[in-house]
TrEMBL record:
Residues 220-336 form the Asparaginase/glutaminase C-terminal domain. Substrate binds at residues 62, 93-94. Its EC number is 3.5.1.1. CDD domains: L-asparaginase_I. NCBIfam families: asnASE_I (TIGR00519). The active site is at 17, 17 (o-isoaspartyl threonine intermediate), 93. SMART domains: Asparaginase (SM00870). This is asparaginase. One of its GO terms (molecular function) is asparaginase activity. SUPFAM superfamilies: Glutaminase/Asparaginase. InterPro entries: AsnA_fam, Asp/glu_Ase-like_sf, Asparaginase/glutaminase-like, Asparaginase/glutaminase_AS1, Asparaginase/glutaminase_AS2, Asparaginase_C, L-asparaginase_C, L-asparaginase_I. It comes from Alloprevotella tannerae ATCC 51259. Residues 9-200 form the L-asparaginase N-terminal domain.
C-alpha cells in the first residue's frame, strides 16, 4: 500500500467533540473552528499530499444531524468527486453510524474512500483520541494500492485503530475510546505500527458503471421496539398517523415477537395498507431468522420483511433512501432483501 504526493484529500468538518474546546466559565464543550483545529494538529504540515478543508457553518452537534445534512454532505462529495482522491468527514459520535449508513446508499458505486471519524475527547485535550483518529483517517483516505487504485473505495468509520464498513457499524460506548463496533462484519483494516487491510472484504466499484449520487430521502419511518408488557393502545397510537411508510420492528433474539392476536392483526393491517415492516433483532450480534420459531414465522406470514443482520442505523437509512427514490412497496421489499452496499449477509 502506498500514498503519493499527488494524493489530495478533502476534509469535511461537520462538528462534534473532536472540534470542541471547554468553556472556562461554564465547563461546557463548544466548537472552536477549523483554523484553531489546525493548530492542535501541526503534523498536518508534514503530510505529503494536498489537504483542503470545508466547514459546516455553523458546525452541527451530531445529535442535531438529520437527513438534510446527509444530503449536504453527499452534495459536497459529488461536486468535488473528480478533484480529490479521498474524503475525510469529521463528525460527532452520537449519530456517526447513521450518517455512515446513509452515505453508503446515497453514494452509489463510490470509487474513492469516504472515511468518517471523530473522537471521545476534544482534540485540544492532552489525552485526546482525536489526533490519532484524524491523522490515520487521512492516511487511509490517501492510501493507494501498487496499481494506483484507492485501498478502501467505500464509506467507512475509523475509530480506535479499527476501520469498519460504515453501514455495519454502531456506537456501543459513550465513555471509552472504543466507541464503535461492527458486530456482524469484520473490520476492513487494523491500524497499529502499520495499517493492515483485509483486501478480501473491501468493496470495489463496478468500473462499467458511473459513480451515482442520490439526494432524496424520505423520513416517514418509525421504530417499534418489542418488550414484555407492551401495550396495545400505546402501539396503536404510535403507528396511527398519516404519512407513515415504513416501520422498523425490533424483536427478540432471531426475530421473535409475542403471540398476541392484536399485534399480529395490527401488523397485518399495516402491511395490507402498503406500510413496509422490517424485522431486525434487538441483539447487537446475530441475525433474524423468522422461520426458526413460530413466534417469528407468524410475522413472516403477515407480510413482515426479514432484516437479516442489519444494524438499526442501516435499516432506517436504507428505508429512507429506497422510499426517497420512489420505488414501489414491492420493489422496496425486494431491495430490503438484497445486499446493495455490503450492509447485510444473506445465506
Amino acid at each position: 500500500m502506498k500514498t503519493t504526493e499527488r494524493s489530495s484529500i478533502l476534509i469535511i468538518y461537520t462538528g462534534g467533540t473532536i472540534g470542541m474546546i471547554e468553556n472556562p466559565e461554564t465547563g461546557a464543550l463548544e466548537n472552536f473552528g477549523i483554523e484553531k483545529f489546525r493548530s492542535f494538529v501541526p503534523e498536518l504540515k508534514h503530510l505529503k499530499y494536498r489537504i483542503d478543508v470545508l466547514t459546516f457553518t455553523p458546525p452541527i452537534d451530531s445529535s442535531d444531524m438529520n437527513p438534510t445534512h446527509w444530503t449536504e454532505i453527499a452534495n459536497i462529495i459529488s461536486k468535488n468527486y473528480l478533484r480529490y482522491d479521498g474524503f475525510v468527514i469529521l463528525h460527532g459520535t452520537d449519530t456517526m453510524a447513521y450518517t455512515a449508513s446513509a452515505l453508503s446508499f446515497m453514494l452509489e458505486n463510490i470509487g474513492k474512500p469516504v472515511i468518517i471519524t471523530g473522537s471521545q475527547l476534544p482534540i485540544g485535550q492532552l489525552r485526546t483520541d482525536g489526533k490519532e483518529n484524524f491523522l490515520t483517517s487521512v492516511e487511509i483516505a490517501a492510501a493507494k494500492t501498487a496499481d494506483g487504485e484507492p485501498c478502501v473505495p467505500e464509506v467507512c468509520i475509523f475509530f480506535d485503530s479499527l476501520l469498519m464498513r460504515g453501514n455495519r457499524t454502531t456506537k456501543i460506548n459513550s465513555e471509552g475510546f472504543n466507541a464503535f463496533r461492527s458486530y456482524n462484519f469484520p473490520p476492513l483494516a487494523h491500524a497499529g505500527i502499520t495499517i493492515k487491510y483485509d483486501t478480501r472484504l473491501i468493496l470495489r466499484p463496478d468500473k462499467q458503471k458511473p459513480f451515482t449520487p442520490h439526494f432524496k430521502l424520505d423520513d416517514h419511518v418509525i421504530v417499534l421496539t418489542i418488550f414484555p408488557g407492551i401495550r396495545q393502545d400505546y402501539v396503536e397510537r404510535l403507528l396511527d398517523f398519516e404519512g407513515l411508510k415504513a416501520v422498523v420492528l425490533k424483536t427478540y433474539g432471531s426475530g421473535n415477537a409475542p403471540l398476541r392476536p392484536w399485534l399480529v392483526n395490527l401488523l397485518r393491517k399495516l402491511s395490507e395498507n402498503g406500510i413496509i415492516i422490517v424485522n431486525i433483532t434487538q441483539c447487537p450480534k446475530g441475525a433474524v431468522e423468522m422461520k426458526r420459531y413460530e413466534t417469528g414465522l407468524q410475522l413472516l406470514q403477515v407480510g413482515v420483511s426479514n432484516g437479516y443482520d442489519a444494524t438499526l442505523e442501516c435499516t432506517i437509512t436504507k428505508l429512507m433512501y429506497l422510499i426517497g427514490e420512489g420505488f414501489s412497496r414491492k420493489e422496496i421489499v425486494r431491495w430490503m432483501n438484497t445486499d446493495i452496499a455490503g450492509e447485510i449477509s444473506i445465506q
